[in-house]
Amino acid sequence: MNEAKKINTRKIVILALFTGIVVVLQFLGAFIRFGPFSISLVLMPIVIGSALIGASAGFWLGLVFGFVVLATGDAAPFLAINPAGAILTVLLKGSLAGFAAGIAHKLLKRKNRTVAAFAAGVICPVVNTAILIIGCYVFFLETLTQWGIAAGFVNVTAFIFLGMVGLNFLFELALNVILSPAIVRLIQYGADVKGGST
Predict the structure, then answer these.
(1) Distance between CA atoms of 153 and 135, rounded to whole angstroms?
(2) Domain extent for 41
(3) For the chain, how many structural domains are there in total?
(4) Residue 198 domain-assigned?
């Protein structure tokens, strides 16, 4: 087996491993909630996978995350209102978050691997939440306005940011920031195993 085939086989194995981790963590995370949404525990393996294999792997892992969100019923309230909008939002937010993390890591890793890992860890939850917020405004604004009024919020923006996504986002961002040293070490270890190709 030549070197190129070894590298491709290794990438496939790593991607399969991280795919399994994403599925398991998202199913476990479905039971942990701050507000109406479950906590995304999968962002760290998405960041690590995208850094080790590339932005396309991040896209795939984020897409898998989205499919599991749909499978666990976490998006059920939105599926009942606008199925196409819910599916599009859920799949885009995960896949673009993983892709963005991979791009950030690739752009920064030659200058400083620690900064690259930290940036990827921050960008992933930011993009994930930003796409969710955009989806809320595009597909669910009328319903969310009604939900916000019922929950006592003065406007829909306050409801979206404070009542729906605020605590989740802060938790996910803090988790990635706190775990950034571990993310750096895992990416470094993976790069060393691959012979420095990351």
Answers:
(1) 20
(2) 3-193
(3) 1
(4) no
